[in-house]
């Protein structure tokens, strides 16, 4: 039922399966083996543009909102509940209003800390920018 240029925006490992987050950002599709189950995301905010697992049942997502003044990007904790998921704590990202965050990745560094990688998309439309941003996550 997805329209043209609509579909999965984010995907994260979920232990024995995958979490797929469609562009509208109001639910996840949890896929295990040959089975898929739709689960709601309770929130009243923007759309999810990507998601990463940061531990069992713990996720970080990019919340992206397009406003009349440009993009507002934030990291949000996605928390599993009994009936689905919900947005948890929100962390505003220090990016410009023309920065459209589209991608998110995480890596564990040799010293045990975690580095979060963000990538923006210029959509082939100046003055938007394509940036690669690295952040160190606190434990």
Comma- or semicolon-separated keywords:
8-stranded mixed beta sheet, 0% helix, 11 strands, mainly beta, 3-stranded antiparallel beta sheet, 139 residues
Order of helices and strands: EEEEEEEEEEE
Broad structural category: mainly beta
Total of DSSP H or I helical runs spanning 4+ residues: 0
What's the shape?
A: globular
Please state roughly what percent of the residues sit in beta strands, choosing from under 5%, 5-15%, 15-25%, 25-35%, 35-45% or over 45%.
over 45%
Biggest β-sheet strands, sense, barrel: 8 strands, mixed
Radius of gyration: 15 Å
Estimated helix fraction? under 10%
Q: CA-to-CA gap between the ends?
A: 40 Å
Strands of the widest sheet, in order across it, are: 1-2-3-4-8-7-6-5
List how many beta strands DSSP finds: 11
Mean pLDDT comes to 88
The parts where pLDDT drops under 50 for at least 5 residues are: none
Structural write-up:
This protein has strands spanning 8-13, 18-22, 27-32, 35-42, 47-55, 58-67, 70-80, 85-92, 101-108, 114-120, 132-137. By secondary structure, it is mainly beta. A hairpin with a 2-residue loop joins β5 (47-55) and β6 (58-67). The model has no long low-confidence stretch (mean pLDDT 88).
Q: What layout of secondary structure does this protein have?
A:
Elements: E1 8-13, E2 18-22, E3 27-32, E4 35-42, E5 47-55, E6 58-67, E7 70-80, E8 85-92, E9 101-108, E10 114-120, E11 132-137
Parallel strand pairs: 4-8
Antiparallel strand pairs: 1-2, 2-3, 3-4, 5-6, 6-7, 7-8, 9-10, 10-11
